[in-house]
Structure formats: structure tokens, C-alpha cells
Design brief:
Layout (H helix, E strand, L loop, with lengths): L5 E2 L10 H9 L11 H13 L4 E5 L2 H12 L5 E5 L3 H4 L4 H6 L2 E5 L1 E2 L2 E2 L1 H7 L10 E7 L10 H13 L3 E5 L3 H8 L3 H5 L4 E5 L10 E5 L1 H13 L8 H12 L5 H16 L4 E3 L8 E6 L2 H14 L2 E2 L8 E4 L6 H15 L1
Parallel strand pairs: 1-13, 3-4, 3-7, 7-8, 8-9
Antiparallel strand pairs: 2-10, 5-6, 9-10, 11-12, 12-14
Helix pairs in contact: 1-11, 2-11, 3-10, 12-14
GO cellular component, one term: cytosol
InterPro entries: ArAA_b-elim_lyase/Thr_aldolase, Low_specificity_L-TA-like, PyrdxlP-dep_Trfase, PyrdxlP-dep_Trfase_major, PyrdxlP-dep_Trfase_small
Pfam families: Beta_elim_lyase (PF01212)
């Protein structure tokens, strides 16, 4: 039995680094609701600059940021076009219906992309029977592990502009997408009006995400954040970790991608495992295993007994996620554990 757990459930499980803990301990703070927390102000200014937007605001989570964006862009009863398997639809508890009160028009996707002609055709024209289309949402990197290219981002943005619509980017793993595409994050966010990105997914900050956009948009969002219970007072302690996440941890994400690729290659050598190569762009390895629906609880227990935390199957697939706290040696141990399970 090894000492300590390897956690492959998600990159949300990353712990703060020692540098983050030190920065949090020493952080200068004020009351962020009054706007006088110097560390938070520094983080928001730096985050906005990083993605080429006028302003940014700290939010407690990625779901909070996405829902705040919908709540700010849209009025109740309007319609939002987005992918049917995107995070906003699949994993945000139906919040769009509860908070923004909008209707979601969910389109099929392929590797994270909606069909461009279908997007254009889905935009509502003026009619007494129709809700107004107000927003298009895209996701990059996609939650299925794939990254969409800049040409697609540009094309969606162009369609939106032609119909006077806004585009929101769910960029929870924006910097993973940038690392894969070998571009700066702002080259992706050039093609959206607002963007949410996480500080805690793979970047090791303990809490928080950023929502960025125009100054007018963020000013409006700041009041709505308060309405949603997101005024966090002395939040500079969290912002201090966020600064290190953005300045340092974004630069090493390619290591996680390399470990994921290595994990995929080693798993493929095992009989009965089929890796989703089409979505192996970032730090996620999706794969199928014979009879996985019946074996899901058993494999979770087997891995737990060997000090590895994994999630059970979802939609007939397992997902292993690499991150800062998963080394290449850990990957070897994971594969060895899978071999022992298959025996």
C-alpha cells in the first residue's frame, strides 16, 4: 500500500502550493464589496489584461461565473444557443432556468463544435410567437477533453455579430486550451464578449474563478454578483493564490497534457480498454472498458483500496484527469493498478 492518495477524479482536487499558502498568509486585504481590497483589485486588473478585456470580477466558482454571465447578458424569457453537452447544460443544475430565467436552445456538437449553419439557422427572427435570441455560448477547452480551433471561435463570433448577439465563452480550462493551441489566452478570448475561467481547475488555487468582459458588463455583473450572494468581503486571501495561479501555474499545464497522453498510451496497451483518442487534447483521458456499467462500483473500490481516487462511469465511460499533483511515476502506478483489476 502506497502512502497518500493519487486523485484522478478531476483537476478541481488540486491543493494550493506552498507559494500560494505563503502568499495567502501575507496578503493585504480590505472589504471587496466596498472595492478596497488591494489584492483582489490587483488580481482582477491582471486577469482582465491577460484575456484582453476591459474589466474582470472574481466569483466563487465556474458555475457561478457562467450563470452570472447569463444573468447579466440576458433578460428573462430570452433564448441562449449552446451545445447540448456543454457544462452549462449538463453540469450546472439547471441554474439558467432558476437564476437568469432563460430558455436554452441546445444544439448537437462534434468535438465541442456546434454546426455553424445550424447556429445561424437557430437564431430567432422577429415573430410574436418566438423568444428573442440574446446570447451564444461556446466552451473551450470543452468538458469532453477536446479543444476547438481559433477559426471556429472566429466563425461563431462573426455569426453573432451579424445578428447583433453577444458571445460568452465558458473557458473553465481556457489556459489548457491555449497550451494545446500554442497561443496566448487573449487570442482565444478575442472572439467573445465575456469569458469565465477557473483559478482552481488545475491551477491549484483553493477557490475561485474570473468573469471578464467590457467595463459596462462587469459593472452590471458586480451588482448581480451581490444579488447572488457573491460579495466575499476580505477575499484578497483568495486573490493572492489566484495571482500565483495565473502568473505561474498556467505556464506548466503542458506537463499535465503530456502525462495524460502517456497515461492514454499505457492504458491502450491493456486488453479490453479503448481510449477516446479524438478528445485527448488536454489533461483528460476518457476510455471505455468492457462491461463498465456493471463493473463501475467494483473498479472504484479496487482503486480506492490501492490509494487512488477515481469517479465511476458516466455515460459508459471512465475519465482520468492529470494535474499538478500527478507525476509520471504516479501514472505508472495507476496503470499497474488497472492491470491488477483486469486480472
Amino acid at each position: 500500500m502506497r502512502e497518500g492518495f493519487i486523485d484522478l477524479r478531476s483537476d478541481t482536487v488540486t491543493q494550493p502550493t506552498e507559494a500560494m499558502r505563503e502568499a495567502m498568509f501575507k496578503a493585504m486585504v480590505g472589504d471587496d464589496v466596498y472595492g478596497d481590497d488591494p489584492t483582489m483589485n490587483e488580481l482582477e486588473a491582471y486577469a482582465a489584461e491577460l484575456v484582453g478585456k476591459e474589466a474582470a470580477i472574481f466569483v466563487p466558482s465556474g458555475t457561478f461565473g457562467n450563470q452570472l454571465s447569463l444573468f447579466t447578458h440576458c433578460t428573462r424569457g430570452e433564448e441562449v444557443i449552446l451545445g447540448e453537452d456543454c457544462h452549462i447544460v449538463a453540469h450546472e443544475v439547471g441554474a439558467a432556468a432558476v437564476i437568469a430565467g432563460v430558455q436554452l436552445r441546445a444544439l448537437p456538437t462534434e468535438k465541442g463544435k456546434m454546426n455553424l449553419d445550424k447556429i445561424a439557422a437557430t437564431i430567432r427572427t422577429e415573430d410574436i410567437h418566438f423568444p428573442e435570441t440574446s446570447l451564444i455560448c461556446v466552451e473551450n477547452a470543452y468538458s469532453n477533453g477536446s479543444v476547438v480551433d481559433l477559426d471556429y471561435m472566429k466563425a461563431v463570433y462573426s455569426i453573432a455579430r451579424e445578428s447583433n448577439l453577444k458571445v460568452h465563452l465558458d473557458g473553465a480550462r481556457l489556459f489548457n486550451a491555449a497550451a494545446f493551441l500554442k497561443v496566448e489566452a487573449k487570442e482565444i478570448t478575442e472572439y467573445c464578449d465575456s469569458v469565465m475561467f477557473c483559478l482552481s481547475k488545475g491551477l491549484c488555487a483553493p477557490v475561485g474563478s474570473i468573469l471578464a468582459g467590457s467595463k459596462e458588463f462587469i459593472d452590471k455583473a458586480r451588482k448581480k454578483r451581490k444579488l447572488m450572494g457573491g460579495g466575499l468581503r476580505q477575499a484578497g486571501f483568495l486573490a493572492a493564490a489566484g495571482m500565483i495561479a495565473l502568473k505561474d501555474m498556467t505556464k506548466r499545464l503542458s506537463e499535465d497534457h503530456e502525462n495524460a497522453l502517456y497515461l492514454a498510451e499505457e492504458l491502450e496497451k491493456l486488453e479490453g480498454i479503448k481510449v477516446d483518442r479524438d478528445t485527448l487534447d488536454i489533461n483528460m483521458v476518457f476510455f471505455t472498458l468492457e462491461n463498465i456499467t456493471e463493473l463501475s462500483d467494483k473498479i472504484v473500490k479496487h482503486f480506492a483500496d490501492n490509494s487512488i481516487k477515481i469517479n465511476g462511469q458516466e455515460g459508459g465511460k471512465l475519465r482520468f484527469v492529470t494535474h499538478y499533483w500527478v507525476t509520471k511515476e504516479d501514472v505508472d502506478y495507476v496503470v499497474s493498478t488497472m492491470k491488477s483489476f483486469l486480472k
